[in-house]
Write a structure and sequence with these properties.
The complex is a heterodimer of chains A (383) and B (294). In chain A, 40% of the residues lie in helices and 12% in strands. In chain A, helix 2 packs antiparallel against helix 10, helix 5 packs across helix 6 and helix 6 packs across helix 12. By secondary structure, chain A is α+β, with helices and mostly antiparallel strands. In chain A, strands 1, 2, 3, 4, 5, 6, 7 and 8 form an eight-stranded mixed beta sheet that branches. Chain A has two domains: 170 residues, Periplasmic binding protein-like II (D-Maltodextrin-Binding Protein, domain 2), CATH 3.40.190; 168 residues, Periplasmic binding protein-like II (D-Maltodextrin-Binding Protein, domain 2). Chain B contains 13 helices and two strands. In chain B, a hairpin with a 5-residue loop joins strand 1 and strand 2. Chain B starts with a helix and ends with a helix. Chain B has 294 residues and is an all-alpha fold. The longest helix of chain B is centred in the N-terminal third of the chain and has 34 residues. Chain B has two domains: 62 residues, no CATH class; 223 residues, MetI-like fold. Helix content of chain B is 77%, strand content 2%. Chain B has a two-stranded antiparallel ribbon with strand order 1-2. Chains A and B meet through helix 7 and helix 12 of A and loops of B.
Chain lengths: 383, 294
Amino acid sequence: MKRRTFMMSAAGAAAGLALAPRMSFAAKGQIDWYTSSDTNILDFWTNIVKPAFEAANPGLKLNLVDAGDGAGIIAIGERAIAAKQTNADPQADFFESADALLPAGAIKAGVYTNIKAAGLSNYSKVNPLAIESEYSLPYRGSQVLLAYDTTKLKPADAPKTWDALVTWIKANPGQFVYNRPDKGGSGGNFVRRAIHQANGLDPKVFNVGNYTQEFGDEALGKAWKLLADIAPHLYDKGAYSSGNTQSLQLLSQGVVTMIPVWSDQVLQAIEQGVLPAETGLVQLQDLALCGGFTRSVVIENGANREASLKLADFMLSEEMQSAILTELGGFPGVSWDHVSEDLRKKFADIIPKTIPTFPGGKWEAAINDGWYRHVAPNVDRKS
Amino acid sequence: MSEFVERAVSVPTETAAGRRPIGLLLVAIPVFLVIWLVIWPAINAISRTIWRTDADGNSSFDLSSYAFFFSDRYSLDNLAITLWTTLVCAVLLLVICLPIALYLRFSHGRLPAYVQALAILPMFVPSIILAFAFIRVLGPNGMVDILLNAVGLPKIRTPYLTPWGPVIGLVWDNIPLTVLILLSGLGSVANQSIEAARDVGANTLRVFWHIILPRISNSILVALSFSVLGIFSSFTLPYLLGPASPEMLGPFMQRTLRDVQDPIGAMTQAVVAFGFCILFGLFYVRSVAKNRGK
């Protein structure tokens, strides 16, 4: 027993040493790259982008680092601001996914590069719908769709409007599930679609600055009624999965017939056989479910600013944008006119005509709080 | 096992006087860590939730966040489900682990070694892996359903996304600690006293009730307060296996801080959770103190 305890603690200490952060210094020609995205994105960069970029640019290397989540990227951004003030090396060159407005004051401090003014040869190809700031580069996007099992629901009968969807959910109790709105974008954007539905199908009604308690209570209250109305007809009389992956799991185990999904996750799941090839995809035609773009940021005071801009330009090339479609299942950051003809035909069913969005900020907090208080508690579930 | 315990108990009495300064020095590091990482943040959270700065920049004594917590149906439901889960887990742990520990203590040979290895296994399984394995086995259309279906039985009502999901996961996760503590407690039950009781005609139940249970009641209290503290503040299993609402305090706090962006609300929940954990902790401290006093 005692020897076993000793072995266990020795093994633990050894593991701890191996995992301890290693010192690193920025090297010339090595782009320090950080992401807050999921593993599938990191895999895409490791297996596709890195070899292609390094082959096209001899002497340049990519150092791919997972920053964990958005907060991780913001922390490195703060480090870059601090480094700028002391003229030190921020040891960061490129954020794969970042919000140019965060950390607050990064643009003013001159830490983020103005990409529009940087003279990228491919910048004019970027989808104008996707541009949010001159300081960030939307290079890939994805949108929430509905995925369904075609063995249980014929594609011709798949609902194409919100009302048809609600009718279908009520006619097929227990066959639809969406995840908690703060635990993954697929459920989150399904909830936002309900908010659009309850407020005249006009995404322009909501913007990042117009949240007030009264307007929020009124606009969201109507949506909670819609969602509470369908709750008893959902999976297990109103259960909500705790993330995008868990919803996909319920669909793949044949427990439910339809779920909202991210376009990139579902295409990849079908590709890898996690979901069967008989999985159908449909987008609501009266107003699409929300989507979003991932935006990259180049660090102005990074040691490899020029190389990072080369990387940014490289990501907009036709080769990489096609790879985003075929390998990642995302949709391109450039306008669809700049995507090859056969790819445009192949992905016709996920090409969005519009990409509705929903503001974050106080709206997000209000949605996250309100949904848990008004929709999630379901008194009838135990029966 | 019993030798080991006796030796461990006898060491401090021999050398306590001579080694006092070194002992204090050794204790200083953990005490410093506890003050820095636990006590100071706790005091900080308490003071920031009762001494609040309003919009005009004036700070004053303000209990409104606690008033909100204890008048808000939603928060109280979450507290209730947390207490319910903790209580059910504690009872189930005792019911499951006590027989295992008794078996391991009083049997010899190779089989008990395998049983012990199996009982300790959950310690080495990260809870996130446990959660996804749970979904694949006990989840809807999972392995259990497939097996039942193969022999023509109806599907189970799956505990996934109901309050029973976290209960099953947490009990499994806490078995090793509980078994180990109970086992070390059983080490202090001398074989001679059991044999003596048998000689005067006591049956198994009487031996358990009058000889074994009084000797290990302390260990039971320690085992339960340890697992109860962990369960009360657990996060991963209730988050992945439990229902969206009511939710346990762990996920509730995390969500209030990050997703609802309400740090004061989250700190209030943390202080309330801390209050309950102090109650459980008092049981542990009391039983340790009683033990030392002997």
